[in-house]
Write a structure and sequence with these properties.
heterodimer; A: mainly alpha; MetI-like fold; 2 strands; 76% helix; B: 371 residues; Rossmann fold
Chain lengths: 293, 371
């Protein structure tokens, strides 16, 4: 025993005090509301101010095809968006980590960061200004003779995807850069020297090395996308059919908190399942991946 | 005798410049099949640039490199019959030992069963039988070294390049790996091109050594030639221990030069290249060439005798030496102690006589000693 550190109870108190703010935050802002929401989701209103415990809220979800449809659609678009974000972010991260030197690398990082100096609402409204029928981009298309009349570029799934990728990019770039930076250049040279082509080096050396970073980036981006409300709502309008909008509607428009709480838990279940599935697929351990984020 | 075989490596006036700095300066040499060739030089002499040009990571600005008789212009590292053992070995941590060795074979499209068989056979040849399933970080430094070499040799390259592969090892293992490398090279018969800044590695391992300085070879020869007949003051100073004595040529008599230092100490040496009377010169006397004696009479007759005080005793087993100050000029001079233990009782401050055969001391016109 190391007796210079004082008695065991003193050390335990010290650790406890240091952890107290984090534990308090965790308990008050995450555990408590979720317990409350869980309780809320398992009750049914039978008459004004009268409630019974039931699975009715969940049953509604499974019996109403609209909710199902939106749920699956949100998951699929989020997965596509995550994949697209990875494809866009990887070359950027590679440039920052391996090609750019000193100031150039910092500058590229700042360029990725700049959009985040503006609030998400303003950013998304900026996209609307660019894309709406009387906006900049349709105007240019008409001017170039590529369209007869200004096309409506908003309210398409592709528009939602563009917005989601744009919003998530930084969260993919950061873990990718850190995992690519730790890749020893001599490994790439050694593979090249042993006869590997560019794609073979990417597949056998770079991707396996960066896998924890890739998984971390994908998890964060997928969760952010799945839980995003503003971007699908503004860029997709009524046709966006995003699951967070359903939760919003239940809580705010319909005052059906019980249904909203159940939807919230279903979304939590979905993201947990997808993350678990992603980890299994990439053969990564959660703890390794979290160290990368 | 048969016609001379095509050398495995031929470098023709290769040049590489970085900004204003010329890393490799119109260098030409060739390496015969099956030999162990070392490039020895201080850091920054251009040896790494040269090796990377041979491997194909850098393109020469001028000149050409031929491997097995074929020009390597425009041929990428993955298409050259050359493999490299990296300084930090660069084993792939995401693969097992067996996968590391089979990596190059897989890139050539060798079928899995054949790949595994060849990798296992190669691991056995380097003394790592049964290690194929192990992870790279489960191996010791020496074992990793062998995996790095096995990974390259399994591809049966014309040329194996080694970039100071022993640099990261501790002294004991380095000594051991030196012997192992030489034995491996002899067993496989592959041409090795080895770069190092460690003159002992170059001397022990090589059939031929190129001593490189400022992008050029100062001398190219066998280890014995470099040691006993250095061609330039740089080689004399860089290869092996040497006492360097700068002075002027007081008299030149045939091949014999009388050198006088600024402080007035005079000694004789053999002119390794023509020396003009009165010119500035540099003489070199190896520590083991000089002989110690308690009285001047014990030294061979006909040789100049010198005397000095013992400044310090440098005990290092068989490499023990004594550091003297020449009596009149206080010039520092190092002499190897005979291994008979004859001077084991030498004391600091003691006055002692010494002399050497001038034929075994070398003298050069003083050039600028690059780096």
């Amino acid at each position: 025993m190391d007796d210079t550190a004082g008695p065991a109870w003193q050390r335990r108190l010290m650790v406890g005090l240091l952890l107290a703010p984090a534990l308090l935050w965790l308990f008050a802002l995450i555990v408590l509301p979720h317990v409350d929401l869980a309780l809320l989701s398992f009750r049914e209103r039978t008459a004004p101010r009268e409630f019974v415990t039931s699975l009715a809220q969940y049953r509604t979800f499974f019996t109403e095809p609209l909710y199902w449809h939106i749920f699956v659609r949100t998951a699929v678009i989020s997965a596509i968006s995550t994949a697209l974000t990875f494809l866009v972010a990887f070359p950027i991260a590679w440039t920052i980590a391996k090609l750019a030197r000193g100031r150039a690398a910092t500058l590229l990082f700042v360029v990725c960061l700049i959009p985040f100096w503006v609030s998400e609402t303003v950013r998304t409204l900026g996209w609307m200004i660019l894309l709406r029928e009387s906006g900049v981009l349709p105007g240019i298309l008409v001017h170039l003779g590529l369209a007869d009349a200004p096309p409506e570029l908003l309210y398409h799934d592709a528009t939602i995807l563009v917005g989601l990728v744009y919003t998530s990019l930084l969260f993919m770039v950061v873990p990718l850069v850190s995992s690519l930076e730790s890749l020893d250049n001599s490994l790439i040279e050694a593979a090249y020297d042993l006869g590997a082509s560019g794609p073979a080096i990417l597949r056998r050396i770079v991707i396996p090395h960066a896998l924890p970073g890739i998984t971390a980036g994908c998890i964060v981006v997928f969760m952010l996308t799945l839980g995003n409300y503003l971007t699908p709502n503004l860029l997709g309008g009524t046709s966006s059919q995003w699951f967070t909008e359903q939760i919003y509607t239940q809580f705010i428009t319909r005052f059906n908190w019980e249904q909203g709480a159940a939807f919230g838990f279903l979304l939590l279940g979905l993201s947990t399942t997808m993350v678990w599935f992603g980890l299994k697929l990439s053969g990564q351990r959660f703890s390794d991946v979290m160290r990368r984020t | 005798m048969s016609a001379p075989a095509t050398p495995d490596l031929e470098v023709r006036a290769a040049v590489k410049r970085f900004a204003e700095h010329t890393a490799v300066d119109a260098l030409s040499f060739s390496v015969a099949r099956g030999s162990f060739f070392s490039i020895l030089g201080p850091s920054g002499c251009g040896k790494t640039t040269l090796l990377r040009m041979i491997a194909g990571f850098i393109q020469p600005d001028d000149g050409d490199i031929l491997i097995g008789g074929n020009s390597m212009k425009g041929v990428g590292p993955n298409r050259r019959p050359v493999n490299m053992v990296f300084q930090q070995l660069a084993l792939f941590p995401m693969m097992s030992v067996g996968e590391n060795v089979a990596f190059g074979l897989a890139r050539r499209g060798v079928a899995r069963a054949e790949r595994t068989r060849k990798a296992d056979a190669m691991l056995e040849r380097v003394g790592l039988a049964g290690a194929a399933r192990k992870k790279v970080d489960e191996l010791s430094g020496g074992q990793r070294q062998r995996v790095a070499i096995a990974r390259s040799l399994v591809l049966e390259p014309t040329l194996l390049l080694l970039d100071e592969p022993l640099g990261a090892l501790d002294l004991k293992l380095r000594e051991h790996m030196k012997i192992e490398l030489k034995q491996l090279q002899a067993a496989f018969g592959t041409t090795f091109v080895y770069i190092t800044h460690d003159q002992s590695e170059a001397l022990v391992l090589s059939d031929h050594v190129g001593v490189m300085n400022r992008g050029r070879f100062e001398q190219l020869g066998t280890p014995q030639q470099l040691y006993y007949e250095p061609a330039t003051p740089f080689v004399a100073g860089f290869v092996g221990a040497n006492n360097r004595i700068a002075g002027t040529a007081l008299a030149v008599n045939g091949g014999r030069v009388t050198v006088r230092t600024a402080d007035g100490w005079t000694l004789e040496a053999r002119a390794s290249s023509p020396v003009a009377g009165g010119a500035a010169v540099e003489a070199f006397v190896r520590p083991e060439v000089a002989m110690l004696a308690r009285t001047a009479a014990e030294l061979p007759a006909g040789q100049a005798t010198h005397s000095g005080e013992v400044e310090s005793l440098l005990f290092d087993g068989a490499n023990s030496a004594v550091l003297l100050r020449e009596s009149s000029t206080k010039f520092e001079f190092r002499i190897a102690l005979p291994q008979t233990g004859q001077y084991a009782d030498l004391k600091v401050g003691e006055r002692i006589h010494f002399g050497f055969d001038p034929e075994r001391a070398t003298c050069f016109p003083a050039g600028d000693r690059h780096g």
